[in-house]
Write a structure and sequence with these properties.
Length: 339
């Protein structure tokens, strides 16, 4: 089978980690072809636009994109290119795995939490944000819809079923935000009935923060609204050692974009020392999405084995003295010996 994916190299360290990631993907020989497209500063410089139509067309045509981090220049048209991509493709589900890896500076081991965040509504609407003429009062709208809640909760339960997960925790604040969070919670209760084999519990968001810090092992899949999901997924990334190993996927009905959670890291761009693992883990999730589950599992296993061995070819942020490319060499070597 051959499948073409759109690849956006991105800005800053983007081209370095994309290059390393594609080399690892190529070593799997799983029939992936790449259609390269530009976005961000690279696109602005080459084509005079931050998000060219050709890039949107490439994502639409392929249905799947692997994306390096993008720099959004301050003061230009979009508030964020990533938000714009979510809007254009209605990427309603943001999925962020937080997995413990060996030999990292993490507070806990044995964590494997999937946060599923609603990505299109809630408190993150661009419309309806007002400030009174005297500047004394600011207002914004929170909008939750039955449709938006249904599709994200169903996505979380389907994901749990596909991955053999045992429990979904619905995180809310319905005790105070009775209308918006209340609607989300009621819809979640209805949907949960369709998945009797998966345990479902409910937790108020403030308690969830405390529970995550004190007993993270009780969590399996978390599903929640936009703002809570934004905060909780970063909290989960912190539990397992931060951004270097944090992938994220943005899923819609017609397109899916896989990326690292971190940004373009201008402080280390061009030095060749960026850690490619977050993007590689995103690529592994992309392989799962493409029904190449065995290959995705192999990539994660190679990363785990490389970290467990404290391979010196790892990048400095993980305690190695290597580079993005040497890290990729170490991973490819492991993938080939286990092929
Ligand atoms: P950042 O994530 O780029 O960097 C934060 C710190 O983490 C820096 O010290 C950086 O060197 C380090 N770091 C990040 N990724 C690393 C990696 N793979 N290996 C080793 N070290 C790494 O955050 P920032 O500095 O706040 O943002 C820089 C730019 O990235 C901004 O323009 C921002 O808008 C953009 N950004 C883009 C995305 C995205 O496209 N998904 C996400 C976040 C930020």
């Amino acid at each position: 089978m051959s499948k073409t994916i759109a690849v956006i190299r991105g800005d800053g360290i983007g081209p370095e980690i994309v290059q390393a990631t594609l080399r690892v993907l190529d070593s799997l020989r799983c029939g992936l072809d790449y259609r390269f497209a530009e976005a961000g500063m690279a696109a602005l410089e080459a084509q005079g636009e931050l998000l060219p139509q050709a890039t949107l067309d490439a994502i639409s045509a392929c249905g799947v994109a692997l994306k390096g981090p993008l720099t959004t220049p301050i003061g230009d048209g979009f508030s964020s290119l990533n938000v714009e991509l979510r809007r254009r493709f209605d990427l309603y589900a943001n999925v962020r795995p937080a997995i413990s890896f060996p030999n990292t500076k993490a507070r806990y081991s044995g964590i494997d939490i999937l946060t599923v965040r609603e990505n299109t509504e809630g408190a993150y609407l661009s419309e309806g944000q007002t400030v009174s003429a005297d500047g004394e009062t600011a207002q914004s709208i929170i909008r939750i819809t039955r449709r938006g809640s249904e599709r994200i909760v169903r996505y979380a339960f389907e994901l749990a079923r596909r991955k053999g997960r045992k429990k979904v925790t619905v995180v809310h604040k319905a005790n105070i935000m009775k209308t918006t969070s209340g609607l989300f919670l009621n819809v979640a209760r209805e949907i949960a009935r369709d998945y009797p084999e998966i345990a479902c519990n409910e937790m108020i968001v403030d308690n969830t923060c405390m529970q995550l810090v004190m007993r993270p092992e009780q969590f399996d899949v978390i599903v929640t609204t936009n703002l809570f999901g934004d905060i909780l997924s970063d909290l989960c990334a912190g539990l397992v050692g931060g951004l270097g190993l944090a992938p994220g996927s943005n899923i819609g009905s017609g397109a899916a974009i896989f990326e690292a959670v971190h940004g373009s890291a201008p402080d280390i761009a061009g030095k060749g020392i960026a850690n490619p693992c977050a993007l590689l883990l995103a690529a592994a999730d992309m392989l799962d999405h493409l029904d190449l589950v065995a290959q995705g599992t192999r990539v994660r296993a190679a990363i785990r084995a490389t970290l467990a061995a404290a391979d010196p070819r790892m990048t400095p942020d993980l305690g190695g003295s290597g580079s993005s490319e040497r890290f990729a060499d170490a991973l490819i070597e492991r993938l080939q010996t286990r092929a």
